[in-house]
Design brief:
This protein is α+β, with helices and mostly antiparallel strands. The chain has 15 helices and eleven strands. Strand 2 and strand 3 form a beta hairpin. Helix 2 packs antiparallel against helix 8 and helix 5 crosses helix 7.
Length: about 375
């Protein structure tokens, strides 16, 4: 469907889109504003050589070694996030077990540097700040004896956070609006599809619902293509139209369901005896059309006569009633002569040939001659 069609559906189904949008957006507001705020505070520390390196040259060598041995700074970062350090920091601040459990600590070694970032998240901004600084102090005290030649020094102390990092109200509300709009649009499209008449849905296909063969719309498309190809390459092409309902028996005395069952069985039978490149389509009622590329004249007549013979020799049974029906058919056949005949005219000539065959009696194939076609 085009964009215009989608917009028309949304406008038509506004009574579905709007409630879905409002419901989702309201649920997002409630969820966002009932969440407890989470604050975050970060302290930074640097790993550097200590005074044991003496002169500047030794100090520079120490820095070079530190840059190549990243496991030193990584070890300090892991220590800062350990349970031991968190427990000691909580005891230093006199925090209860519940307060300690509500705090989370994460550490990160800044890529390409020896800087360690310690971030603490929790519900109380003052406790978050103090705990970040306490974790840093406990880490410094613990690692003093890990590497005698390196120290962990504070760069920036954690500060009091001014606003929570969670929930992100603007982001949540934006997502709620988008999700609500998408949900509403989806429900609108589903509703439009389910309410569409069966004919409107099936018209997009190329098969006849009752028989399973191609429909008239697809035949028209293939007829146009094959006529163009035959004219361009001077290839043979013929079209046959066959009525399989002798004297209108199925139209007058058969219920619709039984008639459809027999027509399906006729279609299955006939498809077995045509080539893969041939096209079989249902025109209307009990009338079928056959398009034979690269076949003309008597060769096409022989194919159609073979199909008629198969129909005549096959009793068609209605499953539920057990009723069997023997059918006879009449068929009209016309060749394409590249003489400017259009698609509709070509089909009309085949129908005229069918009328001639029905007038001569069922079981006949009437091949329309050039003289007949010219009248």
């Amino acid at each position: 469907m085009e964009l215009k069609t989608y917009l028309q559906i949304l406008l038509k189904k506004w009574w579905i889109v709007l409630p879905a949008l409002l419901t989702t957006f309201t649920a997002t507001i409630v969820f966002t504003f009932t969440q407890s705020p989470t604050y975050a505070s970060m302290a930074t520390y640097v790993v550097r050589p200590n005074a044991s390196f003496g002169d500047m040259k030794s100090f520079a060598n120490g820095l070079d070694m530190l840059s190549r041995r990243t496991e030193i700074a990584t070890t300090y970062a892991e220590v800062a996030s350990s349970r031991l350090i968190k427990r000691e920091a909580a005891e230093e601040l006199g925090l209860s077990n519940e307060q300690r459990q509500s705090l989370s600590v994460s550490t990160q070694l800044l890529a390409g540097t020896n800087v360690i970032m310690v971030t603490v998240e929790g519900g109380d901004p003052e406790i978050v700040r103090d705990f970040a600084n306490a974790v840093g102090a406990q880490t410094i005290a613990y690692v003093q004896e890990l590497y005698e030649t390196y120290d962990l020094k504070p760069l920036d102390q954690a500060s009091l956070p001014g606003s929570p990092v969670k929930p992100d109200k603007a982001l949540n509300l934006s997502l709620g609006a988008v999700i609500g709009l998408v949900l509403g649009a989806g429900l609108a499209f589903v509703s439009e599809y389910l309410q569409a008449p069966l004919e409107r849905v099936t018209n997009f296909g190329i098969l006849d619902d009752e028989t399973g063969v191609y429909n008239k719309r697809y035949l028209a498309q293939r007829l146009r293509e094959e006529m163009s190809r035959a004219k361009r390459n001077q290839y043979p092409l013929s079209l046959a139209v066959m009525n399989v309902d002798q004297l209108g028996a199925m139209s007058t005395s058969f219920p619709t369901q039984a008639r459809g069952e027999i027509l399906r069985k006729v279609a299955v039978l006939l498809r077995q005896y045509i080539r893969e490149e041939d096209v079989m389509a249902r025109l209307n009622g009990t009338t079928f059309a056959f398009l034979f590329p690269d076949v003309q004249g008597e060769s096409a007549r022989a194919i159609v006569e073979k199909l008629q013979t198969r129909i005549a020799w096959t009793p068609f049974e209605v499953e539920k009633s057990g009723l069997k029906l023997n059918l006879s058919s009449a068929a009209g056949l016309v060749d394409y002569h590249y003489n400017g005949t259009g698609q509709e005219e070509f089909l009309a000539l085949a129908d005229r040939a069918l009328q001639q065959a029905e007038a001569a009696g069922y079981g006949k194939v009437f091949l329309l001659s050039d003289d007949d076609a010219g009248h």
